Amino acid sequence: MLKKFFIALLIIFSGSAQAFAEKILFIPHDDRPVSFQQPVEVIEQLGYEIISPSTEILNQPDELWTWFNENAPSCNAAVVSSDALLYGGLIPSRSHQIDNDILTARVQNFKFLRDNNPNIKIYAFGSLMRTPQHGTPGDREEPDYYGEHGANIFQLTRLLDKQEISNLDAEERQALYDLEKNIPDEILDDYFARRVKNLSATFSLLDLAYDAVISYFVIGRDDNSPLSQTHRENRQLLEYMKNIPNAQSLAGIDEFAMLLLTRAVNDLRGSVSSVYVKFNRGKGEKTVPAYSDEQIGNSVHEQILIAGAVPVSKPERADFVLMVNTDPNGDTFHFHNSFPPQILSERQQKYFMKNAKKFSAQVEDFIDKNLPVGIADIICANGSDNFLMNRLRDKNLLFKLQAYGGWNTATNTTGFVLGMGILAKKMRRQSVNRLLATRYLDDWAYQANVRSQIAAELSKLPEGLQIYLNLGKYESEIVRRENQLMKDFAKKNLPRVKNFSVKNTWHRMFECEINFAEH
Predict the structure, then answer these.
(1) May I ask the CATH architecture of the domain 18-269?
(2) Contact, 93 vs 73, CB < 8 A?
């Protein structure tokens, strides 16, 4: 009898310890659904409790640090955005006017927090400032002057990067001289001074990773090119990081929360997942997608490591099979991002149909072998390949997948699908299907169809582009239209997906938030 009593006590205390271990603190770099809501939903399907700050303080670093210190003692792991904790978020990191002394103090807060919480593992992710190839007037994601001078700033940094790697020819040297002369000095001073401060802070964070204050640190290169200021700075980082095994630098940014949350779960459970990757025919893994400066095969390999997983050479040995839908010629298409949307020619339609037929046949073959398959759909920038999705729908394969993604940049997609697919093995099928429904509604219904249709409608108005970028007084009307079109799309293509609504959290057309009605 006494033996049974002690066994019961052991079970109770073991259960309590497990409950404590299943609490993860999470600070995203902003409150977009793909940054905050959707990664949290994936982890919650596993039964973990996610502790996150209110959105009201996400852009207030000092309040965020106070919150972090108050909540860290109750958690075993923390996945945090260094951009939020230093600058107030990803977008503020590109336009802030914060003094170096303040940034230095905020970096040191990591050490103070870890000293007070020696058992917590801190998984941090941050960014190198991006270098968009052009500016868009009114775009709040860059300093105001980037709308007018962004294209020239990009070209200037492209030439400066190339000059350090190889020689410039006479024409390029003249172009560099003209750009330096024509871009106002005060703009260049502001732009490069901020980059110097951010880069210095990143080096300091790497030092904390070296000292194991930060358990794992990932640096992202968002929206950049093979020759650019971002690529230029990354070359310095890679040299510095040679002896820091718990840090990585790679293309992307928005997907890192999902990948590090996956790593945190794997570490808490003491497990290592195995991943097999299958690229589409043609250029496949050698594809350099739009908004990236590296081959997608390299990016995916690095993402597997971030997630705390290992690559394997045979699909039968894998916990998750990632299939990457690349263009055979290595192109990235922008049909869903254009304003007004482009209309595909008959030749283009045949090209996409042929590709979808071949790729979906590979997907079907793996599923028929009872392999856990997920699809990273990266032929198009920010939106699903409609030809592939129609094929998967007709073959009744949509809800036989473990994971799917087709949103934003290629690396955003591959990273999120990796995390979702690795963790899906630990979920009930009902949970997997719910997560798939969100992706199909967001990436396929909204990004690849509804958003494009509304953009076509808005393009007929004189102020259409401005409304597209900032919904303003038209928001309620546009949201009603979105919900109508989304429900029509779901009824036709996703009949099992019901009781949902959409809204535009950031009051623009670029992204939407999917919400399901609670029963």
Answers:
(1) 3-Layer(aba) Sandwich (3.40)
(2) no
